[in-house]
Amino acid sequence: MKDSNIQSCHLGPEISPESLIQEHYFLYLLKGSMKAYDGHKNYEINPGDCYLARKNHLVRYTKLKDNGSFEKIIITFDEPFLQEFFQRHAYRVQAPNKQDAYLSIEQNKLIKNYIQSLAPYYSGDQKLDETFATIKREELLLILLKSEPDLANIFFNFGMPHKVELETYMNRNFRFNVSLKRFAYLTGRSLSSFKRDFQKTFGVQPGQWLKKKRLEEAYFQISQQHQKPSVVYLEVGFEDFSHFSFAFKKEFGKSPSTLIPIVRT
């Protein structure tokens, strides 16, 4: 059975719909494509590509279907699974030297054979027994570590994110719609330390700064890049279009729709 017989399948805990990648996961795209952005780098993922999505990274992605279908294999390496694995296997761990949210995994014979080995378990709606799911996750982890030993520095780094320079981080990631508590954690701070450092750095409270920064970005995208307000509000981190429109008009004295240029024919 070929890997083309596999439907979308998933091993391990469910992936959060948030912008934050909460657990490492292996992605193999079967059909369709993906475009992703992590605040400083764009990624294009096509059928046959393998990637490792990294825990504690912010990312926004768009799925593009092929003839109405989008099929992928996602295998999650959650921390309890990795902790248990690490106790049974000796790996030397250093600080990771890669910062990208998605790491491209070069395919080799072991990975190709592994993908094909999943096919008997994923024909149509057939589900894989939990016992086999654990075995197959461990098998993939061993293959990845054999193929790229430096991945141990990523998989087995169980500490919280290290403290980062706040101004650069926030200017790069303000578009992501995550809570202040998340931003605090990702910058290596408690919530109280985050708010205190933010005030020192920017001179305002984080909520005020985020709102103004997102509105200014929205103004630029609509007025200069001619983007639609109905698309922009999500891109800059707002959840609700009505709230976005109200805040936009209050900030600039005009509604976002008035900035859209009139196309004359």
From TrEMBL:
Q: Does the keyword Transcription regulation apply?
A: yes
Checking Pfam families in the record gives: ExsA_N (PF22200), HTH_18 (PF12833)
**Keywords tagged on the record:** DNA-binding, Transcription, Transcription regulation
Q: Can you give the residue ranges of the HTH araC/xylS-type domain?
A: 164-262
Task: Tell me which InterPro entries the record gives.
Answer: AraC_XylS_family_regulators, ExsA-like_N, Homeodomain-like_sf, HTH-like, HTH_AraC
Entry keyword Electron transport: no
Protein's name according to its UniProt entry: Helix-turn-helix domain-containing protein
Query: According to the entry, what is the taxonomic lineage of the organism?
Result: Bacteria, Pseudomonadati, Bacteroidota, Sphingobacteriia, Sphingobacteriales
